[in-house]
Amino acid sequence: MSTLDFSPLFRSMIGFDRLANALETAYRTESGGYPPYNVELIDDNRYRITLAVAGFTEADLSIEAKENLLTVTGQRQVAESEGNFLYRGIANRAFERRFQLADYVKVEEAHLENGLLHIDLVREVPEAMKPRRIEIRAAAAAPAIEHAAVKAAA
């Protein structure tokens, strides 16, 4: 497996350290893993993460959003008398899945339905950060000159 060198980005991108770190982390992270998940774009400012967590209850799952990191953990409460299995193909293991969130992306809600954990996210950009249109006014130099001429005549 070849590796990419992101050090030129660190030299030329001032103030974008998190972006370069995110690229490097994304490249190093292998796809797959447990549990499988989808990331869906609902509209321009809404997203949904869906994790397949069959066998987990609400009490077994934990969702934490801290700064720009969303962490989903699952720890099943194992009963001592679960049975005597001849074959166990259904995963019964703990997991931790992390998602790097962009600035201003917040968790709106989460719900568990039919073995799927849905986490709805929304991007709420503050008014001060949104683009705004600047009005261009005409120069007001002509009236100021006329005003000066009127004073001189008086």
UniProtKB/TrEMBL annotation:
InterPro entries: A-crystallin/Hsp20_dom (IPR002068), ACD_IbpA/B (IPR037913), HSP20-like_chaperone (IPR008978). Coiled coil: none annotated. It holds the Pfam family HSP20. It comes from the Bacteria. Keywords: Stress response. Residues 28-139 form the SHSP domain. Belongs to the small heat shock protein (HSP20) family. This is Molecular chaperone IbpA.
